[in-house]
Amino acid sequence: MKTVKFKHPDGTTSDTINGVMMLEAEDLYPSFPKSILGDSATSKTQSPEAPASDKVDEFSDEQLETLAQSLEQEDKLAASKQIKSNSQESEDVSYSNGTHEAVELSSIVKPRSFASLQMRAKNAMKGLFALNRERLLVLCGASSIDTIATACDMVRELTGIEATVAYAPTKFELFGNDKEDGILTDSLNLESEDTKDPKSRAFSFNGIMQSLAAPSAGEVSQVGSMSLASLPESHAAENFNVVVMPCVHLIDHPKWLGMVEACLAQNDSLKLILVGDAAEIAQLSMFWGLLDNAIHADIVLEFSAAGALTTLAGLISHYQHNDRDGKFLLPFSRDALALLAAYCCRLSGDRRYIGLPELPLKSLIYEANRFAWLDAKQRHNKALAQADLDEQSQSQEELFERNLYVSQAHVLKALATNDFRNNFLLESSLREHRDRQLLVATKGAVVGQINGLSVIETLGTNYEYGEPVRITATLRAGGEGDVIDIERKAELAGQIHAKAMMIINGFLTKEFGSEQPLPVSASLVFEQSYSEVDGDSASLTGLCAVISVLAGVPIRQDLAVTGAVDQFGDVQAVGGVNEKIEGFYRVCRLHGFTSTQGVIIPSSCVNQLVLRPAVIKAVAEGKFHIFTVSHVTEAVKMLTTINWGDSDTENTICYRICERLNNIVAGNEEEGWLEQIKSRSVELYDKLKELFDKDKADNHKHK
Fold first, then answer.
1. Residue ranges of E strands in 80-184
2. Which residues lie across from 271 on neighbouring strands?
3. Are residues 645 and 687 part of one domain?
4. CATH code, 285
5. What is the pTM of this model?
6. Is residue 615 within 8 Å of 28, Cβ to Cβ?
7. Fewest beta carbons less than 10 Å away: which of 223, 226, 366, 491?
8. In total, how many domains does the chain have?
9. Of 333, 537, 603, 630, which one is the catalytic site residue?
């Protein structure tokens, strides 16, 4: 980061702007170790071959506490050099000399499933299996992961048994009948054959639990005569009837809930795991109270970026060993894993963490693998075409097999392919900017006009892209002294946006209307916006536009602004910063760079930055800039090049606003609007009479 100074029109340089920092290229991207195993100490992997009894106690409470502390105390990751796209020539293997530089591949890491990363869910599942009284577990996931497969993997890793998956069972399949057992009524014999005998029942695990709970009338519990060493810790793993079911199926069949509850109460071996997203679980709990008493756990999608390369390498190794098409999945190089980790950091919204939406991430991995195979095939065919002898062909084949892996270029191709499939609306928007259908200025200065930044999410694909928007403010005397939100008046704004406009009113009232009401009102509008606007990320932008029109000071059009504010003017974090920056960058590139263009973001959003290579390159070359601010006065200084100051210091924003408000108040007190019309009418009459008399005199002279 660097401090910021301005060059005045006379050539002099301003003082350093306090609180404003300009980010450099290395501040815009996360850094990762040079080796895949460089941070393996922080991402310990668990061998899938470990005994089931050891797996149940894999994570102790002390380990969980240590992990939580490490996540809370983790320092901000140092930014690294920008990612460079490898050219095709650098990726090609030299087949002529038979040599190739050693590349560290993901295959050196032991396989690790997505389920093994879910420590919260695993902790809940260990409680489910360890406690006989617990029969129901609820796992809350998201649509971007396969919650059923994750739950089955978790059961397999913890107990060594295969869970029964009930995707959409019929009533007969679920409960059976008098002759056949169903999925939930399939009871395994956990006790001895003479379980009807109270003595033998007391020595079984179920008998012990029942005797501890409530001995029958006239029956003496025999547990007291047993030693603690004779008490088993839990059922044997093979005695569990584990059923995994989506909770949406019970939502569709609410009449079955009573029978499900009876099965849970009567079948000691049954362990039911319900999976679904938050909305489905909340809907089911509304009419099934038993769900509130179940064990609940979340399937987490975000993990510490420390150990990201090892984590991703373990996932890829797991896919290679366990997926149906895993045998065709090539190992990933270290650079490919680093790019994949950076992409995951961008998904999480914080580069200190990686987001692992398993299904989209898995699709991206296999897409990159497809490009690696296509690239390898082309290189192999080219090498065979150049070979003259069969012996040479055989050596080429061996080299071909030895150098098969997914490189950084292949991951970039996969990312670009996914982007190309969904960015039609983005390209259409750029055409409208090119044809000046959308008016967004990227140079000059205008009073009461500012470039805001928004994020547009396309329906059906969840594809998001940034779009700059022109925001204008006007002023009129009188009114209630507030800011009129035209979007709200036209019912094109959400509740959060309305709250943001009220916060703007609160700041202006605190600064200039604490002693008497403001004598002017302002109107604010998002120009060329024809859909609903919501969110508070434009509150800083709108406030700066209103301040500009109050002070009569032009705003730089080569800068765009995003950020939320409170009533004290503090700038607060917003989301979608990467998309917003890239959106304004595309428009500036379309209109032509001036080396002064850039974006102002909250200083608290720096950790969100994981920008595309093109933006990082432009920042490194000085064509584009990213500034951070923490207060509205700092943003105003950047946009107007004038200090905020106070009401007594001339040539400051605050002084100009106060002077203008005082003049308006003084003018209103001396003469009302009716008197103003009369006086101006008299002035106009006098001017017309003077012109008439002059013309009459000229005509008389000519005669």
1. 136-141, 164-165
2. 242
3. no
4. 3.40.50
5. 0.76
6. yes
7. 491
8. 4
9. 537
| CB-count exposure of residue 625 (10 Å: 0-12, 13-18, 19+) | buried
Phi-psi group of 464: left, alpha or beta (phi > 0 → left; psi -120 to 50 → alpha; rest → beta): beta
pLDDT digits (tens, 9 = 90+) for 76-121: 333 333 333 333 333 333 323 333 345 778 788 888 999 999 999 9
580 is known as an active-site residue = yes
Task: List the one residue out of 44, 211, 213 whose CA is nearest residue 119.
Answer: 44
- Which one from 362, 580, 623, 637 is the annotated catalytic residue? 580
Annotated catalytic residue 443: no
CB contact set of 84 (below 8 Å; sequence gap of 6+): 613
Q: How many other C-beta atoms are found inside a 10 Å radius of the C-beta of residue 321? A: 13
Which spans in 131-231 are helix H? 147-159, 171-175, 198-203, 205-213
CA 154: distance to chain centroid? 26
How many of the other CB atoms lie within 10 Å of CB of 590?
Answer: 13
- 501 vs 483: CA distance, rounded Å: 7
Burial class (CB in 10 A: 0-12, 13-18, 19+), 496: middle
* DSSP label of 479: T
Closest CA relative to residue 561, chosen from 594, 538, 589: 538
- Same domain as 473, residue 349: no
2/249 Cα distance (integer angstroms): 57
Interaxial angle between packed helices 334-348 and 308-322, expressed in degrees from 0 to 180 and rounded to the nearest 10: 110
Which SS3 state, helix, strand or coil, does residue 451 take?
Answer: strand
Mark which of 372, 397, 421 sits at the end of a domain: 421
In a domain, 79, yes or no: yes
Question: What's the pLDDT at 362?
Answer: 92
Burial (0-12, 13-18, 19+ Cβ within 10 Å), 588: buried
Residue 332 pairs in a beta bridge with 406
Distance CA 145, CA 128 (A): 22
Q: Give the mean pLDDT of the chain.
A: 77
Residue with tokens 């930014």: 79
Residues 572 and 530 in one domain: yes
Give tens-digit pLDDT for 388-429: 545 555 555 555 555 688 989 999 999 999 889 888 888 888
Contact 630, 571 (CB under 8 A): yes
Whether 284 and 410 map to the same domain: the answer is: no
Token reading at 303: 């993990």
* Residues 607 and 692 placed together within one structural domain of the fold: no
Lowest-confidence pick of 195-204, 500-509, 640-649: 195-204
Q: What DSSP element (H or E) covers 484?
A: strand 483-485
Domain range for residue 365?
Answer: 31-114+307-421
pLDDT at 306: 87
Phi (first) and psi of residue 538, to 5 degrees: -100, 10
Both tokens of 545, joined, read 């536009």
Question: Side by side, which strands form the sheet with 136-141?
Answer: 164-165, 241-246, 270-277, 136-141, 295-298
CATH code at position 634: 3.30.230.10
Here the tokens at position 349 are: 């919204």
Residue 460 counted as domain residue:
yes
Q: What does DSSP assign to residue 538?
A: T
- Which amino acid would we find at residue 682? V
* Residue 393 sits in the same domain as residue 449: no
On whether both 498 and 640 belong to a single domain, the answer is: yes
Rg of the chain over Cα atoms, rounded to whole angstroms, equals 35
Q: Based on the domain organization, do 376 and 513 belong to the same domain?
A: no
Token digits of residue 554 = 């032009």
On whether residue 95 sits in a domain, the answer given is: yes
Residue 13 lies in a domain: no
Mean pLDDT for 657-681 is 69
Coil, strand or helix at 73:
coil
b/e per residue 324-358 (b: at least 16 CB within 10 A): eeeeebbbbbbbbbbbbbbbbbbbbbbbbbbbbbb
- Residue 92 has which token pair? 């090609």
Q: Whole-angstrom Cα distance, residue 266 to residue 635?
A: 66
State the Cα–Cα distance between residues 606 and 23, nearest whole angstrom: 9
